């Protein structure tokens, strides 16, 4: 199977890029959602603690995702010389588009934007941004795991060889002590 560049990115430097580019953003987004839900359930001092934890998670997500997207935009995407069709584009660019709601969530949480909104409208704005972030990152994951040939990509012999090299290199055991 031919891989998308998104999948190749996750396979590079295993398990670190998988953790950095998939696990961390999704866990932070799910933490924010859980904090919002528990903040609604509890109507006492526990609610304030959940809101505080959600705020910290939102700020962390915003900063982290801006840095992750900057890395992709500066170092990874420019190195791609052979795009593998529409599925490949959708996977990479939907992931990178998720920086927009992530950055807006950060600005919102820091009180830089939406200061004039009521608390209800702020909560709605926050929820919509979080939903958009999750949609974009899930599109990236789903399309990133798909075979680019499904959308008509026809690999050249050299791209098949490079794909197999990437798969073999990323799954090799680099531990010098193992025998």
Rg (C-alpha, Å): 19 Å
What value does the average pLDDT take? 89
Shape: elongated
Question: For the report, how would you describe the main beta sheet?
Answer: none
The proportion of residues in beta strands is under 5%
Structural class by secondary-structure content: mainly alpha
Oligomerization state of this entry? Answer: single chain
- Give the beta-strand count: 0
Counting H and I runs of at least 4 residues, what is the number of helices? 7
- The structural domain count equals 1
Percent of residues in helices: over 70%
Outline the secondary-structure elements.
Elements: H1 5-11, H2 16-41, H3 45-76, H4 86-97, H5 99-109, H6 119-144, H7 157-171
Helix pairs in contact: 2-3, 2-6, 3-5, 4-6, 5-6
What features would you describe in this structure?
The protein is mostly helical. It has one domain (5-151). 72% of the residues lie in helices and 0% in strands. α2 (16-41) runs antiparallel to α3. The model is unreliable at 169-179 (pLDDT under 50).
Notable characteristics:
single chain; mainly alpha; elongated
Short description:
This protein has 179 residues and is mainly alpha-helical.
């Amino acid at each position: 199977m031919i891989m998308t560049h998104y999948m190749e990115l996750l396979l590079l430097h295993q398990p670190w890029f998988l953790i950095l580019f998939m696990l961390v953003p999704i866990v932070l987004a799910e933490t924010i959602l859980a904090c919002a839900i528990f903040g609604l359930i509890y109507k006492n001092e526990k609610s304030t603690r959940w809101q505080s934890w959600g705020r910290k998670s939102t700020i962390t997500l915003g900063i982290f995702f801006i840095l992750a997207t900057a890395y992709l935009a500066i170092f990874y995407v420019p190195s791609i010389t052979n795009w593998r069709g529409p599925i490949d584009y959708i996977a990479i660019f939907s992931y990178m588009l998720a920086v927009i709601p992530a950055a807006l969530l950060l600005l919102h949480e820091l009180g830089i934007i939406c200061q004039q909104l009521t608390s209800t409208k702020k909560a709605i704005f926050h929820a919509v941004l979080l939903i958009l972030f999750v949609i974009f990152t899930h599109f990236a994951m789903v399309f990133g795991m798909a075979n680019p040939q499904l959308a008509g990509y026809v690999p050249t012999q050299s791209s098949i060889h490079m794909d197999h090299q990437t798969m073999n290199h990323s799954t090799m055991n680099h531990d010098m002590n193992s025998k």
